[in-house]
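Reopening this ticket.

The earlier resolution said the output was attached, but the attachment link was broken on my side. Pasting everything inline this time so it's all in one place.
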Amino acid sequence: LPVPGLSLRAHGSAMRAGDFPEDTPTPELVLPVHGATTFVLVRPHYPENVGATARAIKTMGFVQLALVKPGRLATPQHEMALKMAVKSKDVLLNAPIHSDPHAAVSGADWVVGTTSRRGVSGVLLPRALAQRAVERAARGEKMALLFGNEKTGLGEAERALCHDFVRIPMAADQPSVNLAQATQVIAYELFVAGLEARNRGT
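Inline output:
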């Protein structure tokens, strides 16, 4: 039986990015950090966040998105994910779905996990992360950025895969930044750092 809230078309032929040619523009500016970075959503729960993430990262020129064990409704084909992925359905529908986080970070030279936990030592701020990422991209290295479940964050197994962690500072007493908003903040910092490196000729 169809899953409530899931696009009916998802139960017929599989959707492809080519089904939405008017909604999949190619980023006009491509920097080394773009091709070097994959955004990985681990156990996302809400389809809206999956679609909004695709839009958030593509606005900054990133097109590599992967999912690990998404929730029952948090699939790229869900109607709400598609609705939120404005002009980003190529990123959304091309995102591979992995059953294991190891597969999602395979080939990455640097794995960075996001965290809102207190007491984690050596946590980077987004701007410092971006500078390091751009330097590594210039050397041909690949990076995977792991974002955890909206309520529980990254689990112990995913944290064990990370070489470093990044935290978005908050002024208000909130448990964390919304998942899609977090990807937007990180993608923006990466893009700006990439632009600055290009302007410096480095």
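Reporter confirms the inline version is readable. The chain has eight helices and six strands. Confidence is low (pLDDT under 50) at residues 1-13.
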